[in-house]
Amino acid sequence: MGQGVLAQPFVHRDGAFFCEDVPAEAVAIAAGTPTFVYSAAAIRSRYRALAQALDSCASRIHYSCKANGNRSILTLLRELGSGVDVVSGGELARALRAGFGPQDIVCGGVGKTARELREAIQAGIKLINVESLDEIVLLNEIARDLGMAAPVGLRVNPEVRIANAHAYIATGERGHKFGIPHESALGVARQALQMQHVQLVGLDMHVGSQLATLEPYRAGLARLAGLTGELRAAGAQIRYIDIGGGLPVAYNTGDPEPDLVGFGATVAPTVRDLGVELLVEPGRFFVGASGVLLTRVLYRKESGGKQYVIVDAGMNDLLRPSHYDAYHRIDAVRPTGMRVTADVVGPVCETGDFLALDREVDEVQAGDLMVVHGAGAYGYVMSSNYNARLRAAEVMVDGHRHAVVTARETYDDLMRLELEDPNWRDA
Q1: β-sheet with 22-23: strand ranges across
Q2: Sign of the C-alpha dihedral, residues 6, 9, 13, 15?
Q3: Cβ contacts of residue 183 below 8 Å, gap of 6+?
Q4: CB-count burial class (<10 Å; 0-12, 13-18, 19+) for 273
Q5: What is the pTM of this model?
Q6: Which residue out of 19, 65, 107, 349 is catalytically annotated?
Q7: Domain ranges of the chain
């Protein structure tokens, strides 16, 4: 799935590493380490390339903010014309705070609470993608109590087998927790059509992340198209087909970028034939390769015949290597030309705290700065305070400018919600 149209903002030149036109060392001096750094140019490039690929059909991009909910990223994408996809009440609040209007917002998620459903209805958002009959029944009851009607899309499990890097990012195969089983969708839809306070206006799917080919989109969309015809015959006014995200990110040198032209050509004809608006929900594609993690070497160590590079970023900052066995390219900000095979590990008290194992990396020493590539998606949003570690800062770079957009936490932040004098109650 290759297409060379995307900006490459993170490069070595003149012996140093640059984020657009800002030296990484300048960011590290200003913000400290570990710090996530995002490129505005890369996000703009990726948004515009995808929008152009879909311009032959009625479509709307809704950024999946679970990939990275940073306010500056949300604002940038909103200014480019993007909508947003949220999967919790917290993400809905973030989207509204970032200036997205109700009709810019689609809400998904397999386990929405009654509170979250109520907030989505009250906000008047564009579409609530539901994943079970029980959820539709609850949604109808809440909308009735509010004296409103909820716009609903059915998330259908298309039962499409895919090949991707890890089982945890496959979401559309038979038996997965997500969506309504394909064979049950028509029956669930007919029950929804009998409810007075839900309006069935869409169908939704998400087959998984890091899709290696376009075939899952074609196969899944064909299933949704067939179901659209059946639902319309039953009286549904289907206006939206939501095909989720899944466009891959190149995490290693030489990995292909997605074929956006081919993607558009695969989905647009069916969308035009159905006379619907296509909704797409990319997340990782926009921000994964648009961000890096800067980390400083604390120590070098040899143990049991192995070399260790111990850095100040750990699994609490970037969980993907230990959770998904994910690969992230790691370079020295100032490479010397010498290489070493080592484990790159963090300071967390867990054997599973690593960024790379048995990896050939630049020969570095204590105090050197390193860069972890492809860290813009599922980095900060999955980070934690495990070991009472402070969460990293976030920086946005735009040309020659850079700014801290999320401050590094303080010790007071760690304990801010703890109550020194709790209000004890008898049972």
Answers
A1: 10-13, 16-19, 22-23
A2: negative
A3: none
A4: exposed
A5: 0.93
A6: 349
A7: 40-284
CA–CA dist 293, 284 (Å, integer): 15
**E strands of 10-144, at which residues?**
10-13, 16-19, 22-23, 35-39, 59-64, 83-86, 105-107, 127-130
Q: What was the pLDDT predicted at 2?
A: 42
Q: At residue 291, what is the residue type?
A: G
SS3 145: helix
Q: What is the pLDDT of residue 257?
A: 87
With beta carbons less than 8 A apart as the criterion, state whether 72 and 384 touch. Answer: no
What is the residue whose two structure tokens read 């509204």?
Answer: 96
**Is residue 34 reached through a cis peptide bond, with omega within 30 degrees of 0 on the bond before it?**
yes
101-156 pLDDT tens trace: 999 999 999 999 999 999 999 999 999 999 999 999 999 999 999 999 999 999 99
Cβ pair 312, 318 in contact under 8 A: no
57 is a catalytic site residue: no
DSSP string over 358-424: EEEEE---TT-EEEESS-SSSSGGG---GGGPPPPEEEEEETTEEEEEEPPP-HHHHTTT--SS---
- Alpha helices (runs of H) in 284-343, residue ranges in sequence order: 284-287, 320-324
* Contact of 38 with 73, CB cutoff 8 Å: yes
pLDDT in tens, 235-283: 999 999 999 998 988 888 878 889 999 999 999 999 999 999 999 999 9
Fold designation for 40-284: TIM Barrel (3.20.20)
CA 222 to each of CA 160, 174, 219, 227: distance values in angstroms, whole numbers, following the listed order: 11, 16, 5, 9
Q: Which two tokens stand for residue 53?
A: 């690929």
CA 265/CA 190 separation, integer angstroms = 32
The total of other beta-carbon atoms located within 10 Å of residue 88's CB is: 19
